[in-house]
Each structure stands twice: as structure tokens, then as C-alpha cells.
Protein 1
Amino acid sequence: MPAILEYHEGNTILHKANPLTKIFIAIAICAAVFLSSNIYLSIALILLSVAIGVATGLARLVRLLILGLAGLGIVMFVVQTIIIRDGQTIFLFMTDEGIRRGIKVVLRIVGFALPLIIMLSLTKITDLTNAAVQKLHIPYKFAFTITTAIKFIPIFAHEMKMITEAQTARGVEFDTPNPFRKLKLMLPLMAPLLISSVSKADDAALAAEQRGFYLRDDKSAFKQYPFKALDFALMGVSLLLPIIAFIL
Amino acid sequence: MTIFIKDLSFKYKDAEHFALKDINLDIAPGDFLGIIGPSGAGKTSLASSLSGAIPHHFRGEYRGQAQIGELDTYEASLTDISKVLGSVLQNIDAQIVAANVYDEMLYGLENFGVNHADIPRIIDETLSRVGILELKDREIMTLSGGQKQKVAIAAILALNPQVMVLDEPTAALDPASTENVYEILKTLNQDHNMTIVVIEQKVAHLAEFCKHIAVMSKGELAFYGSPKEVFSHSEELRAIGVDTPRVTRISNSLYEARLSEKNAVALTVSESLTEIDSLLKGASKDSKLSLGDEDLSSPHAHTPKPEEQVLNFEHVDYIYPTGLKALSDVSFDLYAGELLAIVGQNGAGKTTITKLTNGLIKPSAGSVSICGNNTQDARTSQIAQFVSTLFQNPDYQISKNTVLEEVAFSLELLGKSTEEAQSKAIEMINNFGLDKDAAPFTLSRGQRQLVALASTLVTEPRVLILDEPTNGLDYQECMRVMQIVKDAQEQGCAVLMVCHDMEVVSDFASRVIVMANGKMLANGSSEDIFMRDEVLDESYLKAPQVMQVSKALTHKGYKAYHGVSEVSDIVEITKQAVM
């Protein structure tokens, strides 16, 4: 199973682009999704994200994301159609306005999550930190905190997997086909996960300090992260997306 | 660079007792110091006070002085101390900052302002010194435990410290990787005169590699000296809860039996052989030694005749979703009342076997059946009626707020009423000597392991799976856990144990399966397996010390030692021959 937010090795144009360029592209796509009031354009933007994912070798991850987001999307869709009572009832309790807004919410969730996760999967977290410190002059401590939080997500995912395995082997019905029951079973396990995370974070802080964390500044990084022609081209093209979305 | 520790005491903030009490210890440049002691004895606290983590990271009441060369650790900053003293923490996953090996190496070098022009050369040199240059561009996620440990060591080594402090660097490693890490430390110590301080539970390695040993007990320094001096006190060490290498125990026993005038305190197998050999030379040749008619060779003879089959693997293959083959054509049976140990390197397929047994994964080909039920059609939570698993890390298992709730929960999951579950749980908890109202996460690692074990055994499983049950435990805890397992086994529970500690395997297993690269190499009694050099070589295993000694003596013609696996038997045979 491909892990979420872990770096995926590759040799495509996007792998080679500046880390900040990739974040820029993700934000541009998100902005376009946000500005777009046209359902077809939103679908087109999602298809663009999927295409980028497939082209950069993340097909498995994209499929997994779509399945996961579809589940969340269905729940959000139903909630929207229940809340929104404007317009004419056309199916059970659902109104036409409710359905329209429901679809919009679903498209936004998918349209936001996909580009961000795909771009983060194409970027090494250390590169992103270094580039942000070097080019954007973000204080290192600040950048480290954020990137460490991102780094811990796959570690938590792994821990959660180990915990659910251990509990399943004990007889907790994590293998139930009912997703609500599964969610209910998972909540009590958050406590042990949090406790182990706090002690991990503390170890990580100590280890970083013992390797000169406080000495680091914007000139420390060995690798340089210059913007090349490729980066400007990619940023230029992606900047068109929110503009088009705004006009349409 | 000499390290002085003078009258050092430390109490963690909010703690009741001092973690360190009046420690006095000097470490000379180029020393190789091993620190051992039961859990909670203050080993990690001592290491933290060397690295400056005490008092700079962990706050509390601090008395006395620790000095690293010119630096007083109380006054110098953590960063300044880490320029001369490198620490490899126990939790290396938390220590690693980068996604690949090269970036991990860069981190410290960049921070300490090493000239950028020198960095590529330093990285290559350091990786070569640790023997992992070929891993330079690898993703850390794809590395094995042993490789990761070497990366953690290399990342610190690159900063060129004069002292290196390592906290249980081999706790999660298989025997071959453990050996490897110690060889690296030895080279650094000998060829580069680097001072090495290592916290370790594996006494055989301490005895072989260290120049000095410090034994901690309840925050105090209980023993200090050369390995020979320290391990000659095996009785006192046992009372503290510290093991002694088996070969040293042989020496100590021979000395106590007045067979040798001076205690030779053998630390390695070869020293032990030399000692016993010289004692036997004085023995009369017509002794029973060469005949081997004494039947001391099967200490596990009490194993009941297997009758009831509880687990059956029939030509099992397992292929990961990624297409990698983890197991091929594995077939074996497990009977009630047996303790079957699965041994082999990391990645040999041992954990895969346990997961196929408790149903977390299903075979790709062949079949697994538990008490007559094929696991293919059963849900994991159904298989849990027959099988209980003690996972390597007890924290994955524990989910409740008190020990009682935790242990009772196992029974409730199997459909027992709360009342019945509670009364059975209380009985179990009392047997284990645990406090039923304690919060599991406030207990020590060893105690948490016992809580997890209690909640696996309380269901009276037909099959008990143990995944590295002694990992991270001190000697006393290890013996306690294994004794409980043995009691369960004698009451008819079938035990399937994955274990890296060949001494535990030799002491407790009634049968052993050797795995290598997903294939089963051998299946037999531990005495039989540990005599077969070709199997051991192919699986990168070593026989336990006592078996190495008895095997070598047998080869020399002293047939009476054939298959002997216990210290007391070696001593007894030698005694009869010499007296």
C-alpha cells in the first residue's frame, strides 16, 4: 500500500522542479478550484490533477486517494442535501439546490486534496524545508516545525496500522465491513497513539538539538535550490488556471 | 579527552526518587565502556548526563559534576557538548530527520558549518567506515533495522566526535547485524581511538568487546571494572538482575567446585575451551569422557509425546501485494503443549508466519488451519478465539486506562460477561503480581510487557504467538516472562515464538524451525539444529555459547559433551572426569 505523504522516487520534470514550484502549482490548482463556479471546469481540474499523478508514477496512490475521498465525499454530499432545503424536492428528501451544492462541496474536497497530496508526494520534505528557508527566508525553526509535522504523518499511519493489527488479532472487529462501526472502534485507540507521539516528538527534538539544530541558518544547506527556466514555465502555466477559473 | 563524573545525582522533575545517586566514574580516552543494569536502574539517565541532555533537555534536581574534557556539561550548551560527544538515541526512528541516507548524512554537517567543499568527501568516507557506502542514495524507509542503525551511527560519526554514546543500539537487531554493529564500534575504538560508551543488555557482546563494564542498580553504580572483574561476581549480578555470559558462568562454577585454583573468568567461547581443555588434560584417560554413554544430552526429554495438532501449515506461499515473495512452500505442524521457536535473520519470513497464523494475512497458496479451521474463510476476529498474540511492542496492544480493564477487555471481546471477565482478570493479574488499578502507560517497559502477556493469556488460548517476547527486557523480566510462558505451555497451550536470542531458544524451545529467505531450512530439536553448522551458516545464526563449547569439545573427542546445552551439565561432566 503506498503511504500517504511519503516521498515517491521518480525522474519526471516535476520531480526535478524546485520544491517551491511544486507547492506553487498545488496552490494554483486549489485556487482555481476555489474560484471556479463551473462544475465542468472543476471536474476538468480534478482530471488534470489525476493526469499529473498518473504521469509522475503515482497511479496507485491516486486510485487510493480517490477511493478514500469518495467515501468522505458521499457523506458530505448527504449532509449537504439534508441541510439545504431551498429549491424543489426531486428525490426523497433531496432538493435540486441541495444536490447542486452537494456536488460542489464534493468537487472542492477532491479538488483541494488531490493536488496538495500529489505535490507533497513528489517532494522530499527536507528539500522543501531547505528551499523555504533559502528562498522565502522563513525562519528555520518555523519551517522545521511544519515539515516535521508533515514527516510524522506517515509514521503515525504506520503506528495506527500496527495498533489496528494488534487489536484485530485480539478480536476487536476492525475487519468488520461496516465503516461506522470501524470508526467507533478506532476512537479509543487515539489515546495510546497520542501518548507515543508525544514521547517521539520529544526524542526527535533532543536528537535534532544534538545535531546542531540551533546553529542552522539560511546559509547552512549544502544543496542549492535555484529557480530555473523550467520552474518559471511551470509556474507561469499554472498561474493561468486560477485566471481562467475566475473569468469563466 | 577524559570524562569525569563526580558525585553526580539527578532527580527528574516530578519524580519521587533520584534516577542517579552519587555516581563517580572516570572514562579514559580510548575506553570502550559498557553500561548494563536492570530496567529503571538509571542507564539512560547516565548516558543523558554525559550528552548534556541532563540537565539541558530533561529538567530536574541536579547535584555534582560531569565533565567532558574541558567542558562542564552543566555550563556548556547541548550544542557545544555534541561537537565532541555524539549520541545515538535508543529510538532511532525519532533521530532520523531525512527521507534518504544522503540527506540524513548532510543534516549535522550542514548545521555545524562544515565547509561545503569538504562535505561530499566526508560523507563518502564516513559511509565507507561503517561499510554502507552502497546505501548512499537509498530511501531510509526501505532499509532494514540493521542498516538503519548503521545510518544513525554514520550520521553522528560524520560530525567527528571524540566520544560516542549509544543507547541499546542492537535491541531490535538479529544476531548477525548485532555482531556487525559491534565490529564497527570496535574498529572505531581501535583504529581511531574513539571513546565508546554503550548501554547494552546482551552480556555476551559486552564481555567480548568492552574494556570496562559499569553495572547500574537503583541509580547507583553497583560494579565497575574490567569484564573479567565484573562478571566473576555472577551471583551478586544475578541478585541485581543482570545476566552473566554463559561461558563465564561455566568458569565461575568450575572455580566454585574447586576444580580450578584460580578463577579463569572465561569471556568468550575460545577462552572457555582453553580452560576446560587444560582441566581435562589432567584427567585420567580411561574416564567415560570419550565414550559418551552418559545420557546427559537431552535435557528436554520431558516433552510430552505430541498428540493434539492445533496448527497446520500445508505448502504455504505468501506473496506481498507488491509482488515480493515472503514465504515459499512452508509446511509444519504445531501440537498442544509444544513450544516451537522460529529463528532466522530479519526478513527471513518469521513475522509473516505469525501473521498467517493469527489470520492478519491469508496464504497466497496452500492452506493454514487452526484447530481444524481453515483461516482462508475466517475473519481475524474469529480466529482470535483460538489464537492470542503478544506483539513485539506491547504499546500497540494496550488501549485501556487500567490494568484490570485491559486484561478483562480480552475476555469481553470473546463474548464473556463483564462480571466473569473481571473475576478471571483479577485472578490473572494477581498471578502476575501486577497492580490492577495502575494505568498501563505509567508502568515500565517490562511491566507493560507483563500486562500485554496477561491479557493474551487470560483467554486461555489454544495457540499463543510470541513475537520477540524478550526484546527490550532486562534479564529478570526476561526470565519472568519466559517462566509464565512455560507454565502455560505445560498446561497444554501450544506456543509459537519468534526469537533472536538463541540462549532463550535453547533454554525454552521444545522444537526449532530455521527460516532463511522465506524458506524453511530445518525443523528439529534445538540440540539437533545447533549442532548443524551448514544450517547455522546459511541462516547467519550462531549456536548459543554452551552449545558452541560442547560442540567443540565433542570434536576434540570428548564425546560425553555431545549435545549438552546447559551450564550445569558442562560443569557436572567436567567434574566427573577430573575428580
Protein 2
Amino acid sequence: MKNIKILGTGCPKCKRTTALVEEVVKEAGVEAHIEKVEDIMEIMKYNVLTTPVVVIDEEIKIKGRVPSKTEIQALLTA
Amino acid sequence: MFEWIQELADWVVFGLLHLQAGGHLAEALNFFIYDSIKILLLLFIVVFLMGIVNSYFPVEKVRNYLSRNKLYGLEYLMASLFGVVTPFCSCSSVPLFIGFVQGGIPLGVTFAFLVTSPLVNEVAIGLFVGLFGLKITLIYVISGVLLGMTSGLILSRFKLEHLLTPWVKDILARAEREGETFQAERTPFSERLPIIWEEVIKILRGVVPYVIVGIAIGGLMHGYIPEGFFERYMSKENLFAVPMATILAVPMYANASGILPVVQVLVSKGIPLGTAIAFMMGVVGLSLPEAMLLKKVMSLKLIGIFFGVVTLCIIFSGYLFNLIL
């Protein structure tokens, strides 16, 4: 069971990232808990400067851009 | 450099559609095809180049550098330039703002960044090159950077820290100069390229419809507004023109990419360039959505002061351009 967090203040890029992650999780049949973190105070706890950010099991994997589907697939199966 | 586009436009209008040369429709269509292709091509090139710069730009490193070093005023220039290269996404403004505060960077320097970041972005630069040429683009970029610096310097004099929202003040109190070094990402270019490419396509998909509509409206106006029409109302001598244009521009954020082509036609019809640049800076640089985002970190009063100072600086630069251009 993976714990995925998507950090973003609700901009289009963050929404797209969330949608992509949800899609890949569904397709790959990975067991994962996806959480969308929109509260800026929560986000800043991760000490990031650019959003969106993808955090998997409390480790920052992607920041400041929308990842591609294959990238997410690789991260989820790793 | 662009002759081939003209040839293509000629071929479509006269060869393919068999329109009569010299006719009103033929000329308008020819102009529209030529302008659209040229502007979109340049927009694409600039957005792509900025995408590459962006991908390699070490955001954390620069923040830490600003945080560690005393630069005797140069930090305003650096923060302002930093605003140029960071991606155009108002949603990143807030995290970056907090990141700066966290790193103990003075509020004025942070403001310098906050002004330039939306003002000088890849889409605006791309459109400027296509519509106004390199020289005006350079003027726009340089004045954007100076505007960020000046606004930041002015705002730093006001001692505005107490107007931040309480939780940001907490962060400010715990701020420490960054010491840790970040590991650079070592992704090869071949792996970055598809990501950059995707980003470029996304940006263009978002703005191209507006640009096309803008060019079309501009093209129509081109034919119907008589030469020198605006000189009567908006001449350089009219002192109210610049402030009016700037204040009108602030709420117009969403359609910036559509407005630029129209403004270009207005300039060709006699609106002074300084007034037009002030207008465009108002459109691109200050926006209500941005103000909404900033509410999370600043009190309304601080947002008001921030927008006020930037608006005044824009108006001032409008006058300055009208004087020297």
C-alpha cells in the first residue's frame, strides 16, 4: 500500500497531476491511498518552492511540473 | 527571415482561394495568415527556449544563494531576474514567496521577485517578439526587471512585515539562513526533452486560441479604424492617458494573450508606445486571481499597498517611455 500525496494550491497543473496519478493507479491496479494536499501550510512543511509536487511514502519524487504517465508508472512500480 | 510565410500566405489567398489581389477581403485574409503564422512560430520558439532554461534552472540553489549572501542591493536585481526565468504559473508564487521568507530573504527582495515573475514570462516575451520586434521586446523585458527592482526597493522602505498573515509571521520568526546544499538533479537532456515538449504544447494549447482571436480582431480593426484615430484622445500630451490605461488593464488578466495582438494594432493607429506598454504591464503583471492567491500570505492592506506601488511604478514607466521613445 503506497501513500501518495499531491501537493498544490489548486492550480490547473496540480489538478492535472492528480488526475494523471489517479488514472495510473487505477490502470496499474496498485494499492494506493491518494491524498490531495491543498493547504499551503501543509505544503510548506515539505520545504518545496514549486508546485505541483508528488510525494510517495513521504518522499518527494517530482516537483514543479506535471509528470508524464510513464514516469508515474515507473515511480509506482519501483 | 519571414519571406516564406508571406509566400505561403500569398499562395493560400491567391492560388488556393483565387481571391482578387487588392480586394479588401484578400488583403485582410493575407495579413491574418501571415501574422498568425509568424507570431505563433515565434511564440513557439520562445516558449520552447524558456522551457529548456526552466528545466535546468536551479531554483533552490538561487534561493539559498540569496539567503546566504549579503549583496548590497544587488539582491533586488537577482530576485527580479529570478522572476524572469521562473515559469509563468501564479500558483507557484505563493510557495516561492514562503520559501523566500523561510530562507530569511528580506520582504522587499521577495516583492521584487513577485512583481517580475508574472510580468516577464515566456508567453508575453514570445508575443512581444512576434508583434513588436526584438527592440521593443528588450525594452519591455528590461523595464520589467527594473520595475520589479524599484517596487521591491520602495516596498522594503515601508517595513511591512507586520502586515503578513499570522502563520507567515511565525515562519518569518523561525526563518534561518539556508545552509544545506541541494543535490543537483542529473537528468539527461534526452529525458528532459519530452517533459519540456509536453509543457510547451500545454502552454501553447492554452494561449493559441486567444492569440488567434486577438489577431483576427486586430486585423478587422486594422481595416476599419482610420490612421491616427487615437491621437486625438490618447496623445502623449494627454496626461490622463497613462494612468487610465494602467488602471483599466489591471482586471483584464485572463485574456492577456488575446489583448496583445489588439494593442499592437492600436499602437499602429497612433496610441503612444509608452501608454501601450503601461497598459500591457497592467494586464500581465497585476491580476485579481493573483491577489486572491496572495491573500493566503498577506493581509488585504498589504496586497493593496503592493498593488498600489506596482501600479504607480507602471504609470511612471509609461510616462518615461512616452518621453524617451
Protein 3
Amino acid sequence: MKSEDSALIAELKDDNQRDLAFHKLVKKYQERLYWHIRKMVLNHDDTDDILQNTFIKVWKSIENFREESSLFTWLYRIATNETITFINSKKRRTMLPLNDATDYLRDNLISDPYFEGDKIQMKLQEAILLLPDKQRLVFNMKYFDEIKYEEMSQILDTSVGALKASYHHAAKKIEEYLRNTD
Amino acid sequence: MSELKNDAPKLSEIKKEHPFRVPDNYFEDFSSRLHTRLETEKQALPNPKSRIIRLLKPAIGLAASFILVFLLVFWPLKSFLPSYMAKNNSAIETTTTEEDTYLSILEKIDENSFFALLSESSDEEINDFNDEELMSYVSSNFSEYEIYLETANE
């Protein structure tokens, strides 16, 4: 996996092979990045915009990628930053307090024609929505994507201890919400 | 996982699956849609040549405006007031030629002849006075009493 990515990075940095290598990179990572973004913004159209922005950014900055982290970590970090930037811009546009985009995201969830979960899954999504952005991110990455804390630590630039605590608090809050709305 | 069962039993009961789906063929088409957008982005990027021009634009603009002001002020003056300009130019030229002549004369004279010329001119000035003229000057400008006081002091 790592050597495969190293070869891909080398091809991406080579002007003659860049286009083809980029196509390979997109094919390889598009789904994982899509779901990572989708779980944060919920709506498909927003996710599509952010995913495109993520890959455009990757294209523009591949020359500066110093391979200090794995390609996967670097892509996740760009996607996460793009997602957070998008959510913050929505908050600013709708004059919401910086920690409250819940209403906008809940509307996104309800109006999304591509949501096909049952009642309990809708309830879980609503509970996740109530979490602060960072906790939501950590919860989604751990609970759904099962990313290791060490890797998450590199992506989010946060200590493993802080991530574990964040996940624990998030799980407790969600459990409480599910119990109260039963 | 067992930790989650203890801490959040309700949560652990929910199936871990995505409740979302994507439009048909979304992932198959994504790459080509991204490619189209990338091409647009590439075209929007300025090439290095035009970047240099863009950097130099303010300086070029400033120089051009100076040239324009010069042309708007100097050229009409020169074409519509030719006599005025000619007069001014000839006055400048005259002053310059007179100065040049003096300088060339001074350069030719050595130090001794210069001082000799100076003393000669002062002697001439003194010799210009004769006794009669002096007497008339004194009598017209001084009273008898003043002349008496002056001669008494000697």
C-alpha cells in the first residue's frame, strides 16, 4: 500500500505522467474521501463541491507534498480542512454563532433525497449533529471509518489522549440523546 | 467495542451502516467531471509571462502618464508659442556666450597682469580729480566751520 502510494506520488510529481497518475489517485481515494466529507455535511451536493475542491487543492499542491505523512493521511487532512472551511463559511453566511451550524445541517439532512436510513438511523444522525464540530469529526472517523487513533492524531493534529477523551464524551452524549428521545 | 457496549448500550444496538446513498453512476462520472473543472482551473491560471507584465503594470502606467503629461504640456507650448520659445532660447544662449567670453579672457591673463590692471584702473580714478574740482566739491558739501575744525585737528 505504502510503496504503491510512493510510486503514485513519484508519478504525480513527474510532469509527463501527472495527468494519468492524478486520474489513478482520484479513482483510488474518491469514495473514502466522499464518505468522510458526507458524514460531516450530510448533503450530497455540498459533499460533491467539497470533494472537487479537495482534489483541486491536491492537484495544485502535490509539488509541495514532502511525504512526511502517508498519502492517505495527507488527503484526509486536506478533505477535513476543506470541510471545516465550508461549514464555517455557511455559519458566517447565515450569521450563526461559530459553534452552531446544527440547524443548517439538520435542514440538509431532512431535505436530502439521498438519505435512506430508518427512524433510528435518522435519530443517530440528529444526535451526532448536536456534537461540536471537532467531536463530530472524531466520532465519525472512529465509529464509522474505524480509523486508528494514531492515524487520526496525524490527520487532525491532536494528541491520542485528547482524541480518546473526545470520542468517549461524544459517545456518552449520543447515548444520552438516544435514551431521552426513546 | 465491548467498551462501547458498556458505556453506550443504545448506540451499540444500532447497525453501523451508511444511511446515505449517492446518485446513480456518481463515482463513475466524478473523475471526468473533475477533469473538466481542472481544465478550466488550468486555463484560469496566469502564465509566467503575463504574471511579469501584471507586476510591471503599475510602473509602466506611471511612466506612460508622465510621458502623456509631458506631451500635453510641452508639445502644445512648443507648437503654439514658437516665438516665445525662440526668445527664451536666444536669451539663454546670449547669457551663455557672454559668460564664455569673460571666462576665456580671464583664463588668458596671468596673476601679475591681473593685479597690474586693477592698480592701473584705481590710479586713473584718483588722477581724474584735479584741485579745482576738489575745491568746488568741498565748498559745496561742507560749511566753513567744518573745514576749520578739520584743518585745526591736523
Protein 4
Amino acid sequence: MLTIATGNKAVAAAVKAAKPGVVAAYPITPQTEIVEQIAEYVTDGDLESQYIPVESEHSAMAACIGASAGGVRTFTATSSHGLLYMHEMVHWAAGARLPIVMANVNRALGPGWNTWAEHSDAFSQRDTGWLQVFVGTVQEAYDATLMAFKIAEDERVLLPVMVNLDGFALSHIMQALETVDLGDFLPPYHLPHAIDTENPCVYGPMTGPADYFRFRWDIERSMRDARGVIAEVEREFAERFGRSYGPTEDYRCEDADVVVIAMGTLGKEAEVAVDRLRDEGIKAGSMRLRWFRPFPDLDLAGREVVVIDRDYSFGFGGVVAHSIRSKTGVVPYSVIAGLGGQEVTYNDIADFVRNRHPGTETWFGVSDHV
Amino acid sequence: MPGTECLRYVLKAAGPDSVLVVPACCTSVIQGIYPGTAMNVPVYNIAFAAAAACASGMSNAFCALGKETNVIVYAGDGGTVDIGIQALSGAFERGTNFLYICYDNEAYGNTGMQRSGSTPLGARTTTTPGGKPTGKKDLDRIVEAHNPPYMATACSAYPLDLYKKVKKALSIEGPKFIHILAPCPPGWRYPTEKTVEMGKLAVKTGTWILYEREYGKLTISGPSKAAMKRPAPLSDYINGQGRFKNLSPEVMDEMRQQVERNIQRLSREEAGVC
Amino acid sequence: MYEIRIHSRGGQGGVTAAKLLALAAFRDGKYATACPFYGAERRGAPVVSFVRIDDEPIKIYSQIHEPDLVIVLDTSIMDVVDVLQGLKSGGTVLLNSAHPLPGCNGTCRHVDLTGIALAENLVVAGSPILNTPVLGALAKMGVVTFPSAEKAIREMFADERNVKAAKAAYEELKA
């Protein structure tokens, strides 16, 4: 059905279609609309699910862990400080190999209080063992949330998935949304190690170094296998519903001399900048990085690269720029922009490309090349 | 360890269709090291602050699946009165169908006896080497404020009383709470063979009162009925424990007054005198 | 692409007006996005919302700096906000006002949305509802068609007085 919705409502609609057994969540701006909508679905009988209005995000993830291990599909949503507050349990969920799906509405971190978009919240969880995907449109928020359940629950993966959408910029914008009739796209929830009193097991007991180390390797092995599973699920989604996705969304990249790499809504805005630059005769392309964990293999040979980071690792650099550099060997022009919802337009992005200095870093509007 | 002995009775009462949710505590250790286990029911280990929330999710999952499995949190005093109290409060306020059992040895025993909110006045721990300057947090009155359908106190020295209370708790729908006093030989510094005696002295002196509260209505349990009428001298309980060595007369006096106030409060309530 | 900036005060329905407009454009078969610019969410504070309408999918998420149309739901804002900032040459201004703006040239339109809302008794929590009547005015201006405006209003609100108010604004807006 074709309708118009915000990014938050699109996520909630996908959750309704996925029919989780338990949703445990705590409200936080700009995510609140997701949990409000889900609570309404449950109250109105549109979603037969146990909605647990927990007293904190730490408890939200703990409840999801208990529910997922208990044998039902599980969802939560959070943002910013909420994500940081649940950090301990974010690690636990991955270590316990539970296919929980969480929407994270990307928002800056205090102080000062700032509710606008930034990717630092998600990146602070990058080493937890969660898969992370970043979306750029309302439609993609819906599609990625649906696919997240299928990817997470695949027995070759069995790791949780975080679907990231930019606070306000995407969570609150209204765009077209086509909801789908899911059919049997999502198989019934099956967790091989679900709690079973007929076959009592102890979960997460004291574990010696040798076994513990093997468990960590198992997480990484599944993370590597996840690349193939993601590709399979995205292919199946395209065949069934006609919308295709990949590790990146490439726009006019085939013959591009210079490629802009950004994530989320800035990655879509970059496509408009590319059109402007092409009109000027600059052979530019845009590569919007969708999957952050597992980090995709990128082919950037022979191109100049401009990376826009909506995040920063203090004392080190832009997280995406340095990831690109370490994974591909390409030395990008690193632009730090959009922190705390800083306004970045397609004209600004075109300027980043025009004024690029590979090997240097610029804080947009604040510092020159350093 | 009394906490372990109590667990035997809890599980005997609960039966095989039960799951234990265990935060960091002594019970994390006594299960055995992976891949071995000493337990005959599923045990879900979870982070320190998260037991009640994890159980909350599990209880709701079982509800969604139409299962009647008992979800039982088995947590120490640190994981209950301190770091876990927010999750506990939330789960009780939401009416979660589960049983929360706190086995209380009045300190962080698993990490070598540091003070917890449940450590009593005057007790020496590794972080209160001069004796704890403040009293024990009254967890039961905090839980009571959530109006649970069932709550009770118990003590490891009275296993049959505990068994019956677990049975009764699990027959009731909603959030249930049992608070077990579990004397700890190394932490309280007394010989291990005196563990049962120590628990009985806690009850006989009126320091620990056994009772049940069903939908708010208080019933004092058998062993405490006599003790409250004619409590044994507090020094019988205190003097046998190294943690209370060299208490000042003032602190001793304050402890005595606390015990008396507590006995009076509960006696009056049971008698219907406000 | 047609870009619209809506000025209002928190609680006056500017954000809902943007959503309604996007929905109506969408029902016209166009691509549309509606995007409020959220600051501190306080009643009475000046707020601004953006609507983009195009025949192609819209990839722009940044604010509208050079609007084709500026809508002012509360003219008292004009004392504190430069509502004309960045207005394209040949752009249009639509004011919620019974009177034309002094000195405004031919691109300035006005209609008494508050009066229309009060006449229909469209008042919530003491404030007249402006977001549904304004859609009627926008239909008159050709930003969306009236049938789509009507459809959008009915999708979001059950109260038929909203449609009546939109009709009234459609009729009252001077050509």
C-alpha cells in the first residue's frame, strides 16, 4: 500500500508486519514516535505482541534478551543517551547470540543537550558484535527493518541488528512509503538455543579463557558469514518486492574520478551535489555507505575520495574516513560535518568536492585543512 | 554456603518447569564452569543490574508462547538492594508475573565482603573497616510499597518455612518477592558449623522476622511468633560474629532499639493496631 | 521542484500544515516531503516547516534557503523573524491576515484563516485551527488540487468542519 509517513512511522509499520512476540522499549527524543506507534498498534489489536514499557534503556535491552532467549522475536528502539545507557546489555545481547532488532534514531550526545542527528551514538557501539545498517530514506527505514529480522535470525548469523536512521532529518520527515504484504518472507522465529525446560542448559556461566576465546571467534566468524547472508536477503527482498539494496548505494560512480562517501541522509543529499558537479564537468559520484558492521569490501582503486563523517573519534579522526583508509588503502579527504544536526546542504557537499585536499581533515565551517 | 542450600529448597518447591535468572552473585559461581553445570533447570545468567528486567522479558515471552513456566530471579543483596533496585522496582510496578528471591548475606560476598546497602549498622566489611556507620536498607518496605500480591521473608535456618513460601508464591499470579536471610561464615566471621545456629539466632533475637504478606495482609510466621513475644538477648547473635567485634556501647544500643522498633511495628500491624 | 517554507508559532499547527500539504501533493501523484525544523519544542515559539514538491524523487534533507512560497500563519512573527529571507525573485507570500501587507507587491496574497476557523468553530485548546483552512488557500493558488487537499484532510481528520473551512479559504482567497 502506498502512503506517506515519517521515518519513525515506517519503522513501526515494519515492526507491525514482522509481528514480534515482545517489544520492550523506553521513550527518548527523537525515537519516541516509534514506541508510541507500536503501543498504539498493540492497544488497538493491530499487533498481537507483549509491549513492555520498561523503566530504562538498560532494562529495555535486558528484557529483550530475556524475551529473545525465551523464544520469541524481539524488538526495541532507542537513541543517543538511551543507547549509551544500555551499552552493557548491547554487548550481552550479541555475546548471547540473540537476534534482537533495534532501531536507533541517530542523535548527538550531551552535554549540551542536543536532539539532532549525529552518528556518534551508533559508532560508540561498533565493537559490540551488532550488525549495523544506516538508512537514507523513509522507504529504506521500512525495508531495512524488515530485512534486519531475517538477517539476524538466520542461523549462520544469530547476531542482533541495529537499524540506524538520522534523528529528525529522517525520523520526522514525511516521504512516500510503500508497505508490503510480507507473505512468508520472514519465517517463524526459531532460536536453536532458546530456553527449554525439557532440555535444561546453563546460559552464560563462568567460562574459562579457552572457551571464552572460542566464543569470541564464533562471533567474528558469524559476522563474516553475515556478508553473504545480507546479500542473499537483499536479493530475495528485491525479487519479492522490487526494491534492491547493497552494502553501498552507488550513484554515478561508474566513471567517477572523485567519489563522495557519506552515511544516512547526507549520503542522499550527496547525490544532488553529484548532479551539480557533473553539470560543471566534474566527474563525481556518490557512494552511500549502508552497512557499517560488517564493514563492506569497497573498490575505490584509482579514485579520489571525499569522506563526510557525522561523528568523530577524539584524538584520532573521523571514524568512516579512517575505516575507508584502513580497509582500502585510499587516503581520503576527510570532512567532519553535520555534528549535532549542523546544516549541511548539497551546495556544501559540492564545495567539499571542489575544494578537496586528500590526506587532510576539515571541520566544516570551523577549521581549515589540518 | 546458605545461599546454595536455600536454592535446593527453592528448586524443590518450584519443580522442573522453572527457569532461574541469575545476576552476578555467589550463584554465578556455584553453577560450575562451562561446559559443566550443577543445575537441573535452565539458568540464565545476566548482568548485575539486569535480573528483574531480563526476567520481565522472559516472563512476557512465555506468556506470548502460552507457557506456564516459572520465572525465578535468584539474586544476592547487592544485585537487589543496590545496583538492581531500579529494574526490580520497574518489574514490580509493571505487574510482571515472576518470583524474585533475594538471598541476603548482608554484603558483596562474591567479591570478598564489601559493604552493600543491606549491610547492618556496625558491621565491618572490607570497605567499612571501622564498622558501617548507617543501618540496613529496609528492602522489604520498599517492595511492600509496590503492593505485590505476595511477599515473604525467610531464613536459611528454616528450610521448611522457605519451601512452603516458595510453593505459595508460585501459586499466585503477578510479581512475588521472597527475602531470605542467608548467614555467610567467611563474611560474618563465625565457624561454618554454626551457620544454622546463626540463622536461628537472627530469628530468635528478633533481628530477622519471618512473615508473609498476601495482598498487603501481614501474617507472622511460626518461628518468629514466639521470638517476638520474648526475644533472646541481641548479644547472643552479635557476639558470635567477628564482623561485629568491638562494637561501641552506643552502636549496640542503637541496634537494640532498631530491633525493638521493628518488633513493635510488625506486632502492632498484625494485631490491627495502628 | 517547488519549495515552501511555513512560519508559525509552536502549537499553531504549522507542522501539521506541512504534513497535510505534502500528503495532498502526494495524492496529486507528485513526490513530496514535509520536514519540520525542530528546535526546543515550546508552545508559542516561532517554528518553521518545509515542504518540497517535485515530479522526481526528492533527495534533499537540508532546510529550504530559497523558497518559492512562504506561508505565514501568524503575522506577529514578522516582528522577530525575517520571513522573506531568501524568497526567490518572483516568489509568493501567503499571509494569514484579513488585510494585505502594506507595501507588499503583487506576489503577496492574504486570507483570514483565523476568522474562517473561528466561523467554523474550529478551535482546539483555545487556539483556532489554521492547518486545514490553509490547504484550501493553497489549492486556490494551484500548489495542490482541491480534491487532493480534501482527500488529505479527510485522511488525517474525521471532523468535516475541516473540509468546510478549507472550502471557505479556497473561496475567500482573492485571485
